[in-house]
Amino acid sequence: MSMGQPTHRTVAVNGIDLHFAEQGEGEPVVLCHGFPGLWFSWRHQLEALSAAGYRVIAPDMRGYGRTSAPAQVSDYDRPHTVGDMVGLLDALGIERAVFAGHDFGAHLTWDLPAWAPDRVSALMQLSVPRAPRLPVQPSVGFKYLASKHFAHVHYFQEPGVADRELGDNTRAFLAKIFHALSGANRYLDCWEFPSEGNGYLDVLPEPPALPWSWLDEDEFDYYVTEFERTGFTGGLNWYRAEDAVWSQNESLHERPVEVPVAFIAGAKDPVLEMMGSDPFATMGRLVPGLVSTRIIPDAGHFVQMEKPAEVNAAMLEFLGGLSS
């Protein structure tokens, strides 16, 4: 039984310093956060999965927290982001691991079976279903969306713009984005605004005062402190690298994901709304390894923080099934 706090380490891998939290012993599970996340986004899973007998590893992804944040957008493409995860396993002497991904972390981990097939034993994917390859470069699609309404993916493309706005208003931005994307389900309010003349803070609804049911002041302050120190450019560069990732995946993207997969999402996650009528039918075709889909009521995008007991139970059920 592993009790107590995670330990923190930084290892030099793949040309960067990669910081991670680690807790427990046993089969390794690597948890990959998205935007705007940190290792800390998995605090509830580190505790529960380690207590159940797993070695849980939660990195600050490239560009975030106490991990290096290279300035070049090209340093956030697939060879780099896959190389970080392979390098992490190498540094820890781990042959293969179960990978979990959320948001941009899920974009990366969906690609891992094609890019590093001998290192991935299974996937636990949160919020972002596997989707077919876009017929056009992502930036072209983003620009089209922005012609209809404010689209963060387009706003994030121009280096320096979002970096300044979010960096100058870190506390306000984080409160707004965490609230809007949560089960409060206000994110699509953004679509009522035009792109022209608006920044992200202009279009996100005002959040209620903390504490919330799923986030207290101390937890929120941890995010604020880290992002005030690092800024947002590293996280934004994942979006700016989307065209490169799209090109690099050309021959791999439609390759079926055959390792066992659990999919978990909040019923009120705006990502599911944005993905059209039935993202699950499409995912079934692309992911023959799909073992379970768990949609959690009254939860939004940050499902692992909003409903940790339910997410932990779904993960442990899936992990238990792998070993039997």
The biggest sheet amounts to: 8 strands, mixed
What general form does the structure show? globular
Q: Strand order, main sheet: write it out.
A: 1-2-4-3-5-6-7-8
Number of strands: 8
Q: For the CA atoms, what is the radius of gyration?
A: 18 Å
Percent of sequence in beta strands = 15-25%
Number of helices: 15
Termini Cα gap: 20 Å
Q: Mean pLDDT, rounded to whole units?
A: 95
Listing every helix as H and every strand as E from the N terminus to the C terminus, the arrangement reads: EEEHEHEHEHHHHHHHHEHHEHH
Provide the low-confidence segments as ranges.
Answer: none
Structural class category: alpha/beta
Helix content bin? 40-55%
Question: What does this molecule look like?
Answer:
- The protein has 324 residues and is α/β, with parallel strands linked by helices.
- It contains 15 helices and eight strands.
- An eight-stranded mixed sheet has the order 1-2-4-3-5-6-7-8.
- Helix 3 links the parallel strand 5 and strand 6.
- The relative contact order is 0.16.
- The model has no long low-confidence stretch (mean pLDDT 95).
Topology:
Elements: E1 7-13, E2 16-23, E3 27-32, H1 43-51, E4 54-59, H2 78-91, E5 97-102, H3 104-115, E6 120-126, H4 138-148, H5 152-155, H6 161-168, H7 170-181, H8 200-203, H9 217-230, H10 233-240, H11 242-248, E7 261-266, H12 270-274, H13 279-286, E8 290-296, H14 303-306, H15 308-323
Helix pairs in contact: 1-15, 2-3, 7-9
